[in-house]
Design goal:
This protein is α/β, with parallel strands linked by helices and about 260 residues long. It has a single domain, classed as NAD(P)-binding Rossmann-like Domain (Rossmann fold), CATH 3.40.50. It is built from 8 helices and 7 strands; from the N terminus they run E-H-E-H-E-H-E-H-E-H-E-H-H-H-E.
Length: about 260
């Protein structure tokens, strides 16, 4: 899959799923602006950082540029998007990956925690789309990918969501945003889809559920495991595939 000449922005790109997506897009030839709240230093023991992601991408066909950006702050999102367009002349792909997954018992989510989840997981993607859409509309092309989760859907009876009610509600809202924006941007040739990576053994997920590290049920947070589905969506248009909620484990089975 070739994304040579394309420009992509990935939020939450310093570690885990976002890191894998940034590296996969660069491996396909894209210029990638990898955004996260802090730059960090390459080689920081026990954790990935934006600086490490840039280092890891140095041998790839595309280039990765670090962008310090907090998706809770609209001015920072706007700055990253405007600078990308100014520096590279276009924006072809937006991956709304930044998210938080707090764990609470069902009735112990504070108002502050609830609001923070919604600001990052829902408002952040909305604002990013709002800022990137004018550039894509002028190009009459682009692909927006919202990273969702199976928790957004209906759960089997008896499944209590493991204390992630705010997260589940936020991802359900993100799916609805995906459907809405797909129709708004369809006339301009822009694809808008949501992608659920499934159960991934990120540091955050393993910290919350240590059994994932040894159960074999989780895929690793690597470009090889997560990248092909994302890169496929990055190539889509409103004519080929849009307005869909898709799952990585169904890639090349039920879709594209």
């Amino acid at each position: 899959m070739d994304l040579g000449g394309k420009v992509a922005i990935v939020t939450g790109a310093s570690a885990g799923i976002g890191r894998a997506y940034a590296l996969a897009l660069a491996a396909a030839g894209a210029t990638v602006l990898a955004a996260a709240r802090t730059l960090g230093r390459p080689g920081t023991p026990g954790r990935s950082t934006l600086a490490e992601v840039v280092r890891a991408g140095q041998a790839l066909p595309g280039r990765i540029y670090a962008q310090v950006c907090d998706v809770e702050i609209e001015a920072e999102l706007g700055r990253v998007i405007d600078q990308a367009a100014a520096n590279f002349g276009r924006i072809d792909v937006l991956v709304n990956n930044a998210a938080v997954l707090p764990h609470h018992t069902p009735f112990d989510v504070t108002a502050e925690d609830w609001d923070r989840v919604m600001r990052i997981n829902v408002r952040g993607p909305y604002l990013a789309i709002s800022h990137v859409a004018p550039y894509m509309m002028r190009q009459r092309s682009g692909s927006i990918i919202n990273v969702t989760a199976r928790a957004a859907g209906f759960m089997p009876k008896g499944d209590r969501a493991q204390g992630s009610v705010a997260y589940a509600v936020s991802k359900a809202a993100l799916n609805r945003l995906t459907y809405f924006m797909a129709e708004e941007l369809r006339p301009y040739g822009i694809a808008v889809n949501a992608l659920s990576p499934g159960i991934v053994a990120t540091d955050t997920a393993v910290a919350a559920r240590p059994e994932l590290a040894s159960s074999g049920s989780a895929r690793p947070a690597t470009p090889e495991a997560l990248g092909p589905a994302l890169v496929c969506l990055a190539q889509q248009t409103a004519e080929t595939l849009t307005g869909q909620i898709l799952h990585t484990d169904e890639f090349q089975k039920s879709w594209p």
